Amino acid sequence: MRAAAEPPLGDPKAHQQRGALTLLNGRIYIGYGGLFGDCGNYIGSVVSLTTAGAGRTSYAVPTTREAGIWGTAGGVVDGDHLLYAVGNGESTTTYDGSDSVLALSAALQRTDFFAPADWATQNAGDADLGSMSPALVGQYVYADGKAGIGYVLRHDNLGGVGGQVSQLNNGCQAFGSSAVSGTTVFLPCTTGPRAVTIAADGTARELWRAATSVPAAGSPVIGGGAVWVVDYNGGVLYALNPSTGAARLVRKNKPATGSDACRSWTRNSDSWGMAMEIPSPAK
Q1: Last residue of a domain, one of 209, 236, 262
Q2: Rounded to whole angstroms, how far apart are CA atoms 280 and 54?
Q3: Are 109 and 142 within one domain?
Q4: Is residue 2 part of a domain?
Q5: 23 and 69 part of one domain
Q6: Which of the ends of the chain has fewer CB neighbours closer than 10 A, N or C?
Q7: CB 216 within 8 A of CB 238
């Protein structure tokens, strides 16, 4: 099957589809943002088609330019609707739907939203929420982005402008997608992974931040009793203790050497687990 799925507004050449696709009730949802440097006339949007390629619908952020939807996890399914993070828009005066968490119905109608009270300042400084897809954590949604501020929202009432349940000013500039286990969310901070736990009343507290010896800024995943995160610059895959953030296994990238290329594992003396060395591709 092949079907057109162009963004509804702006110059198609100025758009980029970066986030993961989302499947919900027989429909595919595709988020669009802009190119590196925010150049050109792009407007953040979501396009949907059935899995047979029919029934095209779309939503566009009501801004004059920008407001990209580019979080790598794509749309987050919450019941019968989807949550998206939206980047900075062009406006710094009248609110334009940017720098937000959106709730969209399956028919791509906006049903709810959240934006920080200082959205205009964040828009002006390119310090928005669009860089990390929102995370469902129990009854709450956790949103973080470029400003180093995490926001706890009610999933059934996102709060509009400035309506968060609580916020955590912990300096985590988050890019990518998070991982969630129970009431704990593991964040892709630019300075290394961190864990934040959310109490029943919506209060957020930082549980741990990885040591500076774990310079991994990739999106974390959970499996086998560990939090796995990649240092994509150094080619190292770390396995972290979910309770403390201590590295259980560490391995650095080196050129592949035949059958021994993937056999080297290093166990930290004060922890347990494994870390895998990722061989460089042959040239």
Answers
A1: 209
A2: 42
A3: yes
A4: no
A5: yes
A6: C
A7: yes
Query: Which phi and psi (to 5°) does residue 12 adopt?
Result: -50, -35
Q: Is the pLDDT reported for residue 30 higher than 60?
A: yes
Return d(Cα 58, Cα 21) in angstroms, integer: 14
Angle, CA of 276, 281 and 283, to the nearest 5°: 155
Residue recorded with tokens 């088609």: 49
Q: Which residues of 66-102 are buried (b: 16+ CB within 10 A; e: fewer)?
A: bbbbbbbbbbbbeeebbbbbbbbbebeeebbbbbbbb
Residue position matching structure tokens 């969209």? 104
H helices then E strands: how many in the chain?
1, 22
Residue with tokens 């619908």: 57
Residue 169 shares a structural domain with residue 268 = no
Are 126 and 96 found together in one domain?
yes
Residue that finishes a domain, picked among 189, 209, 229? 209
SS (H, E, C) 11-38: CHHHEECCCCCEEECCEEEEEEEECCCC
Residues 166-216 pLDDT 10s: 999 999 999 999 999 999 999 999 999 999 999 999 999 999 999 998 999
Q: Quote the domain boundaries for residue 84.
A: 12-209
Q: Where are the alpha helices (DSSP H) in the chain?
A: 119-124
40 and 55 in a single domain? The answer is yes
278 confidence band (pLDDT: 50, 70, 90): very low
pLDDT tens per residue, range 95-124: 999 999 999 999 999 999 999 999 999 999
